[in-house]
Amino acid sequence: MTGQSxxxxxxxxxxxxxxxxxxxxxxxxxxxxxxxxxVVERDKDVIYWEQGxxxxxxxxxxxxxxxxxxxxxxxxxxxTFASSLPAGAMSYxxxxxxxxxxxxxxxxxxxxxxxxxxxxxFFAPVSEFYGRRHVSIVAFLWYSIMSxxxxxxxxxGALLAFRFLAGTGASAPLSVAGAQMADLWxxxxxxxxxxxxxxxxxxxxxxxxxxxxxxxxxxxxxWRMTFWIGFIIAAISFIPLVLFCPETYAPILLLRRAERIRxxxxxxxxxxxxxxxxxxxxxxxxxxxxxFRMFWQESIVFFTSMFLSLLYGTFYLSFQSFPMIYQDxxxxxxxxxxxxxxxxxxxxxxxxxxxxxxxxxxxxxxKQNPNVPLSPEFCRLPIxxxxxxxxxxxxxxxxWTAREDVHYAIPALSGIPFGFGFSLVFLAFMNxxxxxxxxxxxxxxxxxxxxxxxxxxxxxxxxxxxxxxLTIPWASSLLAFAALGMSFIPILFIRYGGKIRAGSRFxxxxxxxxxxxxEEEQARSASGAASRAPSFxxxxxxxxxx
Length: 546
Fold this sequence. Notes:
The chain is built from 21 helices and 5 strands. It is mainly α. The protein folds into 3 domains: 2-53 and 250-279 and 505-545, no CATH class; 58-249, MFS general substrate transporter like domains (Growth Hormone, Chain: A, Up-down Bundle); 289-498, MFS general substrate transporter like domains (Growth Hormone, Chain: A). A 3-stranded mixed β-sheet has the order 1-4-5. A two-stranded antiparallel ribbon has the order 2-3. This is (Perigord truffle) hypothetical protein.
């Protein structure tokens, strides 16, 4: 459980500037000069995971991993379900709260997504300071309480305020669940398959909500019961979160083990996390700025964010366009309009199956040629190309079939390639960013999340004006042409992604990190000390990952 004393393991001084790659790997440093806030002394022993350690989340049983992962997916589904919950009740909210502008009422969705922009900036770093479990519980409890506020809101101002606060709390699962999966699953194949289920469930939530909310609003229960339903579902989901979702973040688990060992009398035990300066302000400053820097400096992050943002914005714009099509053209009630979102969920399920099948194919191909590693571009992006084309097709399909002389089932079926394409592109690029940036994936994903949530909030605000001025066929076609242009991004990355990563400071740092770890593994094997604790050089690299 304990490694060598630091007197024997610390021999390399490693600097990491705020930017990746600002590293000095060679300057030796005497042990006597080491100082980490008075915690680490020469006689301290570093706690680390033993081979096959049962407390290491990577070594938990598959059943336990799946339970924790599915709870995380349940939390995310709650979050996305709440994002579109008012969509089916919009006309009733306007009438009851005396709202004359459709743009104002659409803010009930947009302001929730603004919470998605704000929340991850803080929840991601805090989860690595206090652990995933505490952040998940506190944030989800906050979201649940704010849902009650939405149900009781006396006016539109109060409703919007509570929706923003609820969205902030609901953003935590989106930030923490992905990191939680990385904590549990070190096998990229299994993680990729789980991500396929994750992406499908994130689509199911917002497609079911308008259907449920619309029908409830038409009854005597009224639109407020829509938010009560959201609270009830959240309260039920909160139970397994508290009872069956343990801490998964390895540095926190090692910290607790070190504290327990010290409490039992071994005062020399220290966790790797205690070797770092655990200053929350510093962590927040680094992690808040890094996503913005990666967005502007990393071509992969920038263009991925643009593609996902267009899809996300178009998806939330559908909560404006579907009522225009199925209420205004075909004469359905608000409750019935929610039914037409269900084909999107069918498409998401198909995308999940395709994603798992493609992942299995790549796994088999890699096993046949183990000495020739497959690139992240090959493993992830071909399905993004398929998804992008399916998404464009769905928009053109809906644009030119949504008219009175065409049966409503025809435009409704366009929702299947819509959900299929959206989920497939989302799945592909989420995995691609994770594979390309590894320890920096959280920052890359945060950049993409903030960008797409921002556009998801903005699109519904101008949706009605755009459809009124351009008409449904041309407004939808405009979005389709934009998506068609974005569909070339996977092709460019497949062709040039390797060169782009080779020129990335972040990716260069990752290559150097792997080289150092490989050299250390060879050195330990040569000395017959394969089970020893990692050297401080490797440990410092791991600290930079946070």
